[in-house]
Structures are given as structure tokens and as C-alpha cells.
């Protein structure tokens, strides 16, 4: 018997609270609960509090703001309660009621700062490492002086891409299958090398890569309760990219959290239920997921060099050690397993081991907030300790703020999986070179 | 029979529902010494088993204008005197495709005649306010319905009366009514907890025993024919609506949906039963309720039903009927009997000074109390006027301080946020802290049961139905009331059995999973025994 499709309301995020059996599995799994008394736990602020929230009134429980949004609760709930999504919506209501916060506005708009800061990269990079400036930023804005900030590359991935396209002769007939690359803000402004490597890896595997206009995924705005703006970004992306998805052209990205925003948050947190949103959600892939999918179809090139043939700098970092891999929470939320780990296993002599850690603690912009900084450090402490104990000087992680945070706290250099893959393929990208 | 204790008062009130508590407060305020005797805890009968609707009267506007008028008059008054028990959700009367459009003009006329304000709500606006409403609704009118927490209301009345010297004896059953020289002179009560007897000397007795009014009257030798009209209600786990929805049609089964506290309640059926404590919940009636909900809210059946319960409406079925009143036979629909109330004197059977108040609704409790109190005062020669319509009621003490404002859904969340620590949360579903529980235990005195605390605080009334709070609360009860461990376990066993009872008619889907988890916790992990069922009062 085919059940008639339920009306959306039973599936709407707030009403998934209806499934909660109070079993506490989410509270048990929450990485924030064990390190602070300020957060009563995902069950308490999620499905439990939800029954007491009046849709027309702000939620009176400020404590929900201590939810880091890592999403482990949603992942572990055996009954389908979207706990993190409920919390994120409640946080947004709270932010709306509290009014404007300059700090959260700044953290939410990193899409702008990345691009606007590019021409001033040397100055900004110096300022963000200048302790009195950071101290001032903490005292006046509440942005933690201890948090790791990225460095501006001085050029953007998009400008590199445009120049490269101009320079290269376009073949009249290109029969290669097409993929769309979704780079995200961080790759664009801070880590263009990841984009450069990703493009080349995809091309190495026989794809024609295109980089159509696209917007910030909106996740930082969403996490900071600015839903209206986050939706504007979301709509830009869905209208720019949904058509590719409909035509069966895969959209591939290197920023695990951003990809998850497009895959699920637009619908379940921002409440966008239109066809474009659904089409895009069904057609976008994390790069490791995409490449591992190719491998499963026997289509991935496996001409990988062993570690001993890696560039000397990287070889020295790896040494004799195993390479710790941390799967970020928002990558786990994809529900796709650990494709990066599977891919890296294909590289001869490379021993990548997943660290048995829940969360590194940073959770996007959460660990940049002064009042939450200690929580962010304490949550990730077991992970950092393990990396130090192993003595690893190189670790792997798929999302940017997690990489920066783990690097700062563990002392290891933390790279994106594509950086190792590229080395194995013999692909290089000069850090500073525009071309 | 030797009474252990003797108490003196002017008036003995029998029955601790809204009406009895209302009479207690009314008479205490008029300066009389009043004692209220209740066989269980307060609000355990019909008053504690209703759907939570403070009627605008719209439901009775066509067929029972007298009751409709009483409702709207009292609605305004209760909002004024007990705002902390009211959530002003507002109510709609909505007509859906199966409903007869010819009813609408009759209804509007009826509302106008008794002074119920109605305001049409355009469908587009209605769907904005209540997105889950069946979009096929073809006529919607707004009326001043509200949600009312009867537990809080009755506790407020009892506390207000206590401040004026009114005494409430819970778990005291009336065994005999004593008469002398054609008048009542008092009653003999038995304390059901200790088994001891209490003799109460009183100049007058008010029988406000609701569905038990017939039994109480019999003790005085009077015969009043009550019709026991049982209604089944189902609480859904979340508030699918935030406005009360009534079907704009001749009153029928399952045509009211009331958002009350954290749940919404669909009610009710109407079946005449023999006994005042026939609280059976036939599966057929549950299905009826859910099907009816489906008309107002599509997919209602698929949502999680939390708990079902039954209440017995004490309808008065007078020997001489007024025009249009119907006979209520067992098994029949009791909806044709008026919801209005009557005050009856029993002087004709040599029980002058004994008055029964019968019929009515929770919404009209104050008017019923006023009317019977007027008659009591006339009998006693007291001329003090009724002031209950002007006197605001105090909040029950364990609700904590705070401004006198209408109750809001977010209230408990707000309280928890400002509680000293999070880990003192005992009942997670209904947000009850250890402090609140201990305060309520101390305020309730000796012999308080977990079920009493449930009514005081909503303990164990949320989605897990005491699965996680029952054992914690039993521990706190044992500690605070210095109970021997065996008594705490017995209290727990009784409590969870009562919770399981309301769950049994709903064992499918989510609630089945929950019930299984709860059963594993109590029966397997904790080994809590199944309690012996208490012998039936009438047996």
C-alpha cells in the first residue's frame, strides 16, 4: 500500500519534536554538555523546550544559544528528531528578540570580509597576529583573542580561475563530462590553493570544470540567527545552481559544512521547500564523496604515487607517523560515511587513521565568540591530546574552521584531503602564485 | 461509630471540584466558617478531567441559550479574577465541508442574542494564523474562548479560601449526613488515608459533588436524578493549533480542539453511563476523536497522541423538563440535556439546610457558587453579598512569584532558565524542578501522593508519561516526606499504573515506542510491581 504523501507540516523541523522519546541518546552524545554547565543539553533545549515555545513569542531560554550547532544530536537521534535544526531556529528567534549584535554581524558576514580584505592582505594578516589588536577586539566586540584566524591569500580563487580560463585555449569541441565547482568563501579568499588543487584533480579525472557565479552558502549568517540574509544567499545559490543539478551536472565542493548547508539546512533550518532547493540538495556533493563514488564505479584514476614520492616538505611532515584524520561534525551529517578516509587509503604508504573524537569544538563561528572560547577548546581537548600523543605533525580535516582550530590547538599542520590526493596525483599548486 | 475528631463550622461543602471550591471561597468571603470535604484530592473528578476550554458559550448558542449566556458572562469574569489560570488563545468556530451551512445564520443569531461577540476571519488570515487548519474551511468566526487550567483555578480558590479561614479536607469521604428536627446538623466523614472519622457540625450543607451529587443526596434521604454523561478526550503531544477550534455545527463528538499547556486536546464524546466513576475509554471513542480531528486538521491521525482520559459530566435531569429538553437514558447521547445548572433544596425530605448544586460547566463555576451561596446565606439569615466577581484570586504558592498576567506557554521555560541549576530538573517534559516539587510536597502535607503532585504541577503529564520523572519524583517524595522506602515504591507503583492506564488506549506509533521504553524502565530495569487495584467504592 502506498501511503499518501504527508502534508509538509508533520515533517517540519519544529514538529519533529513529536518523535522524541526522551531517551537521552542525544544528550549523551553532545560534545558541549560534558564541558560546561551553561548548556543543559540538546534534549532539554531542543524537543523538550520546543513544546513550550510559542510561535509568536521569542524563546525565553537563553541557554539554547550555547548549542554549538555541530549537529551530532540530529545524527544520533534514533527517532528522527532534528534536534540541532530545532535549536538553530530557536537561536535565530532569540537573536531576533535580542536585537543587533555587532560581533555576530561581523562573524556572520565573513563572505564580505574575505573579498573586501583581499587587497589589504598583508596589513590584515599582520593585524590579526598583533596581540594588542586582538585584545582590543575581544574587549570591545567579544571576538576571542585566542581564536585562530585565517590569513588572506592576497588574491581570490575566482580571479585565478578567470585568468586561467582566459589564458587557456578553449577547444571547439569538448566532449568531457562537466562538473560545477562550488568553492565557498574560505577557498575563495583564504585558501585558494584548495580550489586550485580540486579543479586539477577533477580535470585529471577527465572532467571539464566550470565555476559559475555563486554566493556564500549562508551558514555563518544562519548560525548567528540572521535567517533573512541567509535565505537571500540561499536563493542566489539555488537559482544559480539548481539548473545544473536538474541537467544531471554534478556540483562538487570542498567545504564540508557549506555543502551540508546546501544539502540540508536550506530546507530543514531556513525552511525553503521549493523545487530549486530540493533539486540542488540532490545534486551537490562533497568532493571526497564524489571521487569515492567515481572509484566505486571504477572511474577514478588511481595513478597515485607513494608517500615517498611526495614533495619533500610534505614527506617530512608525515615522517613515519600515521596521519590523524578528523571527520568534522557537519561532514558526518552528510550521512555518507567517511569517503575522504576511503580515498586516502588508496594512496600507497599513507596511513590515515580516524581520530575517535566527536567534535573539535570550533563549530563554525562558535569558538570565535569570547564567552564560548573555553568551551570550544575543552570540547576539542581529547582530539588535540590524541594528535599530540601520536606525535603527528600533519593531520587531515575537511572543513576550514575545524582545520584552523585543530592546527592551532594541536600544533600539527592540518590539510584538506585534496591536498594529499593532489600530491599523490603529482599535482601542485603554488601557494602564492596567481597562475 | 465514634468520631475521632469533631469540627464545627457554619457550612460544610461536599465536593472539591471547581464548584465546591468556588462555594468554599464565596462563603468564606462572606464571613462564614466553611469546611470543604473531598473524597480524593481536589480537582480529581469532572473538573480535573475536562478539555481545558473556558467556553465563550458559542457551543450552546443555538440549542441551549441559557447555558450560552451563563458561559459568556462568566468567561469575562474568570479572565478578570483568575488571569494566571487562563491562556488567551482565542477561539474560532469553523465550518468544514461536511457541516451544514444553514446552521451558520442560526448560530450567529444565537450568539448575538446572548451577547457573544463574533468576528468573521477570512480564510487566508486564518491559514496564516493556523497553518495546519483544513484549508477547506468555508466559514470561520472568532469568539472569546480561552484555555483554562482547572488545577490552578481550583488551587487558587482553595488557597484564597484558606486565607479567610476556609478549611479543605482532602481524602475525606462523607459517610453519613446527620439530621435533627427536619434540618441537617452535620456529617460524618471518614479520612480515607488514616481510616479515622471526623464529625463535622454544620448549620448548612452544600452538595457540590458533581457526578456523585445523587449519592450524596441519598445520604440525606433525597433523590435527585443525575445523568452521568461520559466524555472521552485525547491529548496530542504538541500544540497543532494555538487557537481553540470549534466545529461550527450542531455540537457533536470530537468537535473541539483546545491548545492547553503544551498539548492540544480533542474532545469529546458524550455517552450516558450508569456510574459516576465509569471512566472507561472505549477504543471506538478514541477513533471517533481522531477522525473528527482529521476534519479540522488534515493528518491529525498521524500525529502523536499522548494520553486519553474520560470525565463524567454531572448533568441534571429534572423530573419536570423544560421545553426542548430530552431524556438521557444509559448508552444514549447526553448532548440534549441542558448544560445549565440548578440549585435544589432538600427541605421536603426533612433535610432543610442541605442544598444541592447540579448541572453546569467549569466555565460557570463561579455563578453556580454564587447562586447556591446566596441560598445558603438566605437560609442562615446572612446578608453579606457575593463579591467573588470582583475579587482577584491569588496564584497558588508553588507557581512562584511574578506579575499578575495571563498565563503564557513559555512560562515554565522562562522559570527554568532562571532556576539556579539545570540538573535539578525532575520532570523534563513538563519542566518541574526539584525545588518546585519539594515546595508542593511540603504544602500538601502528610499522605500526599504522586498523583496529587501531578495535578499540582503537571508532573508526568508530558510525552514520556512519567517514564523518566516517576522514579525521580518518588525519590524526592520519599526524602522530603520522610517515607520508608516501601512507601515510596508503593507510591511509584500506583502512580505509574495510573499513567500506563491513560496510555493503553493509544498504543500505536510513537506512543507505543514510548510505552515500551517506559515499561522496560519500570518493570524490567526497576522491577516496580503492578499494584493491587483499589477496591471499587461501590463494590
Question: Would you kindly provide a brief summary of this structure?
Answer:
The complex is a heterodimer of chains A (435) and B (539). Chain A is of the alpha/beta class.
Q: What percent of residues of chain B are in strands?
A: 15-25%
The span between the termini of chain A is 59 Å
| Contiguous helical run count of chain A | 22
Q: Return residue spans of chain B where pLDDT drops below 50 for at least 5 consecutive residues.
A: 322-328, 535-539
Integer tally of domains of chain B: 3
For the record, the CATH architecture of the largest domain in chain A stands as Up-down Bundle
User: Strand percentage of chain A, roughly?
Assistant: 5-15%
Q: Shape of chain A, please?
A: globular
CATH topology of the largest domain in chain A: Glutathione S-transferase Yfyf (Class Pi), Chain A, domain 2
Distance between the termini of chain B: 21 Å
Biggest sheet strand line-up of chain A: 2-1-3-4
Class derived from helix and strand content of chain A: alpha/beta
Here the CATH topology of the largest domain in chain B equals FAD/NAD(P)-binding domain
Structural class of chain B: alpha+beta
- Rg of chain A, rounded, reads 21 Å
SSE layout and pairing:
The complex is a heterodimer of chains A (about 425) and B (about 550).
Chain A: H1 25-29, H2 42-50, H3 72-76, H4 83-98, H5 102-108, H6 110-117, H7 121-127, H8 131-141, H9 157-167, E1 178-182, H10 184-189, H11 192-204, E2 208-210, H12 219-223, H13 227-246, E3 251-253, H14 256-268, H15 275-283, E4 284-286, H16 287-296, H17 312-318, E5 323-326, H18 329-332, H19 339-344, E6 352-354, H20 370-390, E7 394-397, H21 400-410, E8 413-415, H22 417-425
Parallel strand pairs in A: 1-2, 1-3, 3-4, 5-6, 5-7, 7-8
Helix pairs in contact in A: 2-4, 9-11, 11-22, 13-15, 14-15
Chain B: E1 5-8, E2 11-14, H1 18-29, E3 34-37, E4 53-54, H2 65-81, E5 86-87, E6 91-95, H3 103-114, E7 119-120, H4 123-129, E8 139-143, E9 146-148, H5 150-163, E10 167-169, E11 172-180, E12 183-191, E13 197-201, E14 204-207, H6 213-219, E15 226-236, E16 244-247, E17 256-260, E18 263-267, E19 271-273, H7 283-296, E20 305-316, E21 341-345, E22 354-359, H8 365-380, H9 411-417, E23 425-427, E24 432-433, H10 434-444, H11 450-457, H12 470-480, H13 485-503, H14 509-525
Parallel strand pairs in B: 1-13, 2-3, 2-14, 3-10, 6-16, 14-22
Antiparallel strand pairs in B: 4-9, 5-9, 6-8, 7-8, 11-12, 12-13, 15-18, 15-19, 15-20, 16-17, 17-18, 21-22, 23-24
Amino acid at each position: 500500500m502506498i501511503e499518501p504523501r504527508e502534508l509538509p507540516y508533520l515533517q517540519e523541523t519544529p514538529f519533529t519534536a513529536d518523535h522524541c522519546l526522551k531517551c537521552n541518546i542525544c544528550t549523551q552524545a553532545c560534545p558541549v554538555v560534558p564541558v560546561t554547565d551553561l548548556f543543559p543539553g540538546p534534549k532539554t533545549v531542543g524537543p523538550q523546550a520546543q513544546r513550550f515555545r510559542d510561535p509568536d513569542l521569542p524563546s525565553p531560554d537563553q541557554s539554547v544559544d550555547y548549542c554549538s550547532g555541530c549537529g551530532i544530536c540530529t545524527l544520533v537521534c534514533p527517532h528522527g528528531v532534528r534536534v540541532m535544526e530545532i535549536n538553530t531556529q530557536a537561536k535565530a528567534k532569540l537573536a531576533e528578540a535580542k536585537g543587533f549584535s555587532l560581533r555576530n554581524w561581523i562573524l556572520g558576514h565573513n563572505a564580505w570580509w574575505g573579498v573586501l580584505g583581499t587587497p589589504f592582505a598583508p596589513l590584515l594578516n599582520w593585524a590579526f597576529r598583533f596581540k594588542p589588536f586582538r585584545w582590543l577586539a575581544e574587549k570591545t566586540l567579544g571576538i576571542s583573542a585566542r581564536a585562530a584566524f585565517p590569513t588572506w591569500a592576497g588574491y581570490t580563487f575566482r580571479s585565478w580561475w578567470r585568468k586561467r580560463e582566459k589564458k587557456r585555449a578553449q577547444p571547439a569541441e569538448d566532449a568531457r563530462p562537466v562538473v560545477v565547482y562550488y568553492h565557498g568563501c574560505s577557498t575563495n579568499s583564504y585558501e585558494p590553493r584548495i580550489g586550485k588543487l580540486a579543479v586539477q584533480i577533477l580535470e585529471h579525472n577527465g572532467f571539464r570544470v566550470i565555476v559559475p557565479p555563486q554566493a556564500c552558502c549562508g551558514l555563518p549568517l544562519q548560525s548567528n540567527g540572521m535567517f533573512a540574509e541567509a535565505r537571500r544567499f540561499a536563493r542566489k545559490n539555488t537559482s544559480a545552481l539548481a539548473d545544473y543539478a536538474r541537467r544531471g551536472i554534478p556540483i562538487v565542493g570542498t567545504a564540508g559544512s557549506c555543502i551540508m548547508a546546501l544539502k540540508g539546512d536550506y530546507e530543514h533550518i531556513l525552511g525553503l521547500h521549493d523545487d530549486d532547493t530540493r533539486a540542488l540538495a540532490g545534486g551537490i556533493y562533497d568532493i571526497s564523496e564524489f571521487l569515492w563514488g567515481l572509484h566505486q564505479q571504477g572511474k577514478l584514476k588511481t595513478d597515485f604515487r607513494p608517500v615517498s614520492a611526495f614533495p619533500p616538505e610534505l614527506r617530512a611532515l608525515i615522517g613515519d607517523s600515521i596521519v590523524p584524520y578528523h571527520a568534522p561534525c557537519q561532514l558526518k551529517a552528510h550521512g555518507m560515511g567517511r569517503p575522504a578516509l576511503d580515498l586516502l587509503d588508496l594512496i600507497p604508504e599513507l596511513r590515515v587513521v580516524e581520530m575517535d573524537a566527536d567534535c573539535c569544538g570550533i563549530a563554525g563561528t562558535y569558538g570565535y565568540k569570547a564567552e564560548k572560547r573555553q568551551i570550544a577548546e575543552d570540547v576539542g581537548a581529547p582530539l588535540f591530546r590524541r594528535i599530540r600523543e601520536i606525535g603527528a605533525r600533519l593531520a587531515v580535516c575537511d572543513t576550514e574552521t575545524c582545520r584552523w582550530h585543530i592546527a592551532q590547538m594541536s600544533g600539527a599542520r592540518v590539510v584538506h584531503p585534496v591536498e594529499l590526493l593532489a600530491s599523490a596525483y603529482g599535482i601542485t599548486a603554488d601557494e602564492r602564485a596567481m597562475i | 461509630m465514634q468520631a475521632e475528631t469533631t469540627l464545627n463550622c457554619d457550612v460544610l461543602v461536599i465536593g472539591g471540584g471547581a464548584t465546591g471550591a468556588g462555594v468554599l471561597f464565596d462563603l468564606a468571603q462572606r464571613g462564614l466558617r466553611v469546611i470543604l470535604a473531598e473524597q480524593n484530592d481536589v480537582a480529581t473528578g469532572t473538573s480535573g478531567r475536562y478539555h481545558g476550554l473556558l467556553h465563550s458559550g458559542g457551543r450552546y448558542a443555538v440549542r441551549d441559550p441559557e447555558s450560552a449566556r451563563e458561559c459568556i458572562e462568566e468567561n469575562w469574569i474568570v479572565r478578570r479574577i483568575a488571569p494566571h489560570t487562563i491562556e488567551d488563545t482565542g477561539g474560532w468556530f469553523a465550518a468544514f465541508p461536511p457541516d451544514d451551512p444553514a446552521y451558520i445564520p442560526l448560530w450567529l443569531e444565537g450568539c448575538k442574542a446572548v451577547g457573544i461577540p463574533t468576528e468573521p476571519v477570512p480564510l487566508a488570515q486564518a491559514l496564516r494564523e493556523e497553518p495546519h487548519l483544513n484549508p477547506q474551511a468555508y466559514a470561520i468566526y472568532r469568539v472569546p474562548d480561552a484555555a483554562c487550567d482547572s488545577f490552578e483555578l481550583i488551587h487558587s480558590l482553595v488557597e484564597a479560601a484558606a486565607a479567610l479561614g476556609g478549611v479543605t479536607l482532602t481524602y475525606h469521604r462523607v459517610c453519613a449526613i446527620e439530621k435533627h428536627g427536619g434540618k441537617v446538623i452535620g456529617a460524618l466523614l471518614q479520612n480515607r488515608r488514616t481510616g479515622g472519622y471526623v464529625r463535622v457540625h454544620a448549620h448548612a450543607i452544600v452538595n457540590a459533588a458533581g457526578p456523585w451529587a445523587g449519592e450524596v443526596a441519598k445520604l440525606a434521604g433525597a433523590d435527585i436524578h443525575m445523568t452521568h454523561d461520559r466524555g472521552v478526550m485525547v491529548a496530542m503531544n504538541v500544540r497543532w493549533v494555538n487557537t481553540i477550534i470549534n466545529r461550527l455545527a450542531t455540537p457533536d463528538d470530537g468537535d473541539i480542539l483546545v491548545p492547553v499547556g503544551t498539548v492540544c486536546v480533542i474532545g469529546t464524546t458524550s455517552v450516558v453511563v450508569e456510574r459516576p466513576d465509569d471512566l472507561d475509554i472505549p477504543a471506538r471513542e478514541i477513533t471517533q476523536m481522531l477522525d473528527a480531528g482529521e476534519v479540522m486538521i488534515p493528518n491529525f491521525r498521524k500525529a502523536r497522541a499522548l494520553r486519553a482520559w474520560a470525565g463524567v459530566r454531572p448533568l441534571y435531569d429534572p423530573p419536570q423538563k423544560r421545553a426542548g429538553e430530552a431524556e438521557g437514558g444509559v448508552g444514549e447521547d447526553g448532548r440534549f440535556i441542558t448544560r445549565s445548572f440548578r440549585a435544589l433544596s432538600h427541605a421536603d425530605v426533612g433535610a432543610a439546610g442541605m442544598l444541592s448544586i447540579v448541572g453546569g460547566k467549569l466555565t460557570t463555576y463561579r455563578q453556580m457558587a454564587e447562586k447556591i451561596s446566596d441560598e445558603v446565606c438566605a437560609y442562615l439569615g446572612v446578608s453579606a453579598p457575593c463579591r467573588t466577581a470582583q475579587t482577584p484570586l491569588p496564584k497558588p504558592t508553588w507557581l512562584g512569584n511574578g506579575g499578575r498576567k495571563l498565563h503564557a506557554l513559555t512560562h515554565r521555560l522562562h522559570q527554568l532558565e532562571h532556576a539556579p541549576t539545570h540538573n535539578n530538573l525532575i520532570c523534563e517534559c513538563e519542566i518541574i524542578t526539584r525545588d518546585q516539587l519539594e515546595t508542593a510536597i511540603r504544602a500538601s502535607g502528610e499522605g500526599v501522593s504522586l498523583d496529587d503532585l501531578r495535578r499540582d504541577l503537571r508532573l508526568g503529564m508530558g510525552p514520556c508519561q512519567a517514564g523518566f520523572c516517576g522514579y525521580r519524583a518518588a525519590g524526592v517524595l520519599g526524602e522530603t516526606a520522610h517515607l520508608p522506602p516501601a512507601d515510596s515504591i508503593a507510591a511509584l507503583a500506583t502512580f505509574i499504573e495510573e499513567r500506563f492506564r491513560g496510555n493503553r488506549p493509544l498504543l500505536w506509533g510513537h506512543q507505543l515506542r514510548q510505552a515500551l521504553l517506559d515499561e522496560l524502565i519500570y518493570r524490567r530495569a526497576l522491577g516496580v510491581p503492578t499494584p493491587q487495584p483499589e477496591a471499587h467504592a461501590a463494590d
